[in-house]
Write the structure tokens for this entry.
Amino acid sequence: MVFLPQEIIAKKRDGKKLSQDEIGRFIKGLITGGVSEAQAAAFTMATYFQHMDIEERVALTLAMRDSGKVLNWQDLDGAIIDKHSTGGVGDNVSLMLAPILAACGAYVPMISGRGLGHTGGTLDKFDAIPNYNTNPDNELFAKTVKQVGCAIIGQTPDLAPADKILYAIRDVCATVENISLITASILSKKLAAGLDALILDVKIGSGAFMQTLDEAHALSDSLIKVGNGAGLKTGALITNMNEPLASAAGNALEVINAVKFLKNEKQDERLREITLRLCANGLVLGKTFANEQQAYEKCEQVLRSGAALEKFNQMLAMLGAPNDFSNNMDRYLPKSKIIKDVFAKKSGIISSINTKAIGMAVVVLGGGRRNPSDRIDYAVGFDNLANIGQKADSSAPIARIHANDETSLLEASQRIIEAYEIGGQIDKTPLIYSKQLEA
């Protein structure tokens, strides 16, 4: 039967269920040219309003996965595990998680992204490291994963190319915020990476895209059901993003924070717990350990012994970064011209934080993008960020700002001052709301 994209669009527009074959032919048409950009835009808008059930989401995810190369790690003796975060501020977990998992005997072929809106991107952090190759060819990527146990790179052109096409269209026709499409976009890339298990960090709060627990559960449930339905063991933690996860926000500053974490020099308490819980649950999903407690203790051990740091150093060296990077960060990372403490508008106990406002303050400094084509200033941002429950006064700043000009310094300082609420009822929401390791 002749393939007519408009028939599939009309069917979804009218709220009818699409078959696996119909979805597969439509996505194939995106790659071959049989579906125009206008038709793809119409398809995403129809899906935005009518949604897809779980079977349709599985079909869309698999079709997008199969639009390009699917990596195969069958010759490796260990679980292939990855993590995905829905985004936040001071979320540098991937930098520690990948080498910790590798030191525990897993393999982590992590395909990461750049910053989106007020949230920082893992690739932007690695771009702050001189000569680190975030876009290696498949041969170097595979070699690094096999020899080191982990590699963190960007999406290559031949992995889920239909997702790149569809996401660009969604971005300009206001159809990004749809769980059916979000689910397929996230999981198609992870499935293309050839994973055995995927642990999700679904964030909720003032610095997250999901503002309510119901929204977070809806996305988590969709990702878990579709991931497992597509043959990928998928679980999730729903975690708190009502304050920055690390005490740093900004690319080079978050790299410093991560290296100090791996060197056991400084480990932010909330960041440590989230990182180790994600690692432990990922290892359980990948059947590397029988239970979370055993896995958690092993993660603590490889972190404490320096084995995770060694994996991190090996990954950097394999992908082009200086061999002595972790011991000489001051020599290699960019530095801002102005470094100043920022103080709250009054003294008292920090009761809540508008975390999105901190992320936007980093953007104001130049550490994030206002437009997709913007160049990032990797040096700028904040460190020594104060937590909820800490005291703020004339001798206890709420942050230290790193800026490269006075104009952005003044605006970003004002934004972060306004982001910190002093006095009032203290936000006591839990660090981890829930976890789900079964479909």
User: Anything to note?
Assistant: The chain is about 45% helix and 15% strand.
